Structures are given as C-alpha cells and as structure tokens.
Amino acid sequence: MPTIILKTLINAPIERCFDLARNIDLHMQSMHHSREQAIAGKVNGLINLNESVTWKAKHFGIYFEMTNKITAFDYPNAFTDEMIKGPFKKLHHQHLFKTIGTQTEMTDVFEFKAPFGILGWLVEKLSLTGYMRRLLIQRNKVMKREAEGVWR
C-alpha cells in the first residue's frame, strides 16, 4: 500500500496550523483546479471528531465522490481522516503537528490503496502515487501561505 509522508515547516502557531488543516473552505480553495466541492455532511468551517464530509471533484477527467470521516482528534497535535465511501479501497490520512522553536512542523502521513487488484497496483505505481503527492503538496502550499499571512 503506498504511503506518502510530507513534512511542511510553517511560520505560525501550532493551533493556527491545526485549524487551517481541518478547514473545509480552505481545502476547497486549495483544490480549485479539480473543482472540489463539499456537497454533504460538514460543508464549511472546521471539521471535528466523528464529523464527515462528502467531496465531489474532477480527477483524470472524471467526477468522483468521496466521504471522509474524522476518526481521531487530539487538538492541536493530530487528527486523522479516513475514507468511509468512495473510489479507493482504502484511504487513511494522519495530520500531525509539532512545535519546533517558533515554527510548526506539519506532517502528512497519507496511505491509500487503489481498487481493482493488480490493475490498481499498476496504476498506483505508474501515476496515482505521484498524482496524490502533488495534490498534497498543492494543499500544503495554500495552507502555508494562509497560515503565514496576517493573523491574530
């Protein structure tokens, strides 16, 4: 199963980073290129433990819907979202936060498994892992820019 681990250093307090990472509106802004929209469940604001959101987005020229639920929550250190319905066989995303001096280190641990057995495995190797990594990097750039902007 592919696992993507990304570390992002952000010049902002840990609480701000944690809240921005679970902000549905900011997530949609960071994924505007895929026309991602929250269409059911928690559709704006900050998502919390046991809440879910259903996303609709266009990837590879096809519209997909996916419902994710917050299954673990330790403010402001970590939260986990997991796909409970959607295109993957499995999707598990840990968001980890740690203060380092005056910065926050945000770590994404993103695990997923494509459906369709050996064909899915081949797609993971050839394109899907790189595609998912690029999506996470894009999301993190938008989040970092927002977190490091003017804040109170």
Give a short overview.
The protein is of the alpha+beta class and 152 residues long. It has helices spanning 14-21, 24-30, 117-147; strands at 3-10, 37-41, 52-59, 62-74, 78-85, 90-100, 103-113.
Structural account:
- With 152 residues, this protein is an alpha+beta fold.
- The chain has one domain: START domain (Alpha-D-Glucose-1,6-Bisphosphate, Chain A, domain 4), CATH 3.30.530.
- Helix content is 30%, strand content 42%.
- Strands 1-7-6-5-4-3-2 form a 7-stranded antiparallel sheet, with helices on one face.
- The longest helix has 31 residues, at 117-147.
- It is globular.
- The model has no long low-confidence stretch (mean pLDDT 94).
The major beta sheet can be summarized as: 7 strands, antiparallel
Helix/strand class: alpha+beta
Radius of gyration using CA atoms only: 15 Å
Biggest β-sheet: strands ordered side by side in the sheet: 1-7-6-5-4-3-2
Shape: globular
Mean pLDDT: 94
* Percent range of helical residues: 25-40%
Counted up, domains total: 1
Distance between the termini: 41 Å
Q: Helix and strand succession?
A: EHHEEEEEEH
| CATH homologous superfamily (4th level) name | START domain
| Parts with pLDDT < 50 across at least 5 consecutive residues | none
